[in-house]
Amino acid sequence: MTRKRLWAPWRAPYISSARTKSKGKGCLFCEKAKSRSDAKNLLISRGKYAYSLLNLYPYNSGHAMVVPYRHVGEVGELTREEWLDLWRLASDLLRRMKKVFSPQGFNLGINLGRASGAGIPSHLHLHVVPRWIGDANFMSTVGDTRVISQSLQSARNFLAAER
């Protein structure tokens, strides 16, 4: 069964443009890393070997990812420096999210390969998802729909401003 998401109407053109821009032009994560339009690309922070950004298709409000700049698909391909920077940025995201959103918990995870659910399996990325008691309410259970209560740009602005 496929999960649906409930979005505000203004989201549809944004999602369509993101799909169109990434088709046939290489890796979406590599493109975002090269761009200097951090706000437009929903980037939250940049490290030496990795960066953090919001997920275009979130499981929950504030769902972010940490992505190495280098195009690698497996954990074992990361250098020590990349691995440390990835987790440093994840720790920074947790701190920012705690202060900005006051979640009651977190899910952190890496999906390796398409069978695991990886949307972009060739470029490793770590998901950081803030959670609240009751966030998987009746809409997810009965309606098979997720309600995302905050716009991506608003969440990005709050997280990026938090130092």
Distance N terminus to C terminus?
40 Å
Structural class: alpha+beta
H/E element sequence:
EHHEEEHEEHEH
In the CATH hierarchy, the architecture is: 2-Layer Sandwich
Q: How many helices?
A: 5
Count of DSSP strands: 7
CATH third-level topology? HIT family, subunit A
Largest sheet: 5 strands, antiparallel
The neighbouring-strand order within the major sheet is 2-3-4-6-5
- CATH class category name: Alpha Beta
Strand coverage percent: 15-25%
Count of the separate structural domains = 1
Fraction of residues in H or I helices: 25-40%
The CATH superfamily label reads HIT-like
**Low-confidence regions:** 18-22
Average pLDDT figure: 84
Any idea what the radius of gyration is?
15 Å
- Cα shape: globular
How is this fold's topology laid out?
Elements: E1 4-6, H1 11-22, H2 28-34, E2 43-46, E3 50-54, E4 64-68, H3 80-101, E5 105-109, E6 126-131, H4 138-141, E7 145-147, H5 152-161
Parallel strand pairs: 1-7
Antiparallel strand pairs: 2-3, 3-4, 4-6, 5-6
Features:
five-stranded antiparallel beta sheet, 5 helices, alpha+beta, 163 residues, HIT family, subunit A, single chain, two-stranded parallel sheet
Task: Give a short summary of the structure.
The chain is an alpha+beta fold and 163 residues long. The protein has 5 helices and 7 strands, in the order βααβββαββαβα.
Structure overview:
- The chain has helices at residues 11-22, 28-34, 80-101, 138-141, 152-161, and strands at residues 4-6, 43-46, 50-54, 64-68, 105-109, 126-131, 145-147.
- The strands form two sheets. The chain has a five-stranded antiparallel sheet. Strands 1-7 form a two-stranded parallel sheet.
- It has five helices and seven strands; from the N terminus they run E-H-H-E-E-E-H-E-E-H-E-H.
- Strand 2 and strand 3 (50-54) form a beta hairpin.
- The termini are far apart.
- It has 163 residues and is α+β, with helices and mostly antiparallel strands.
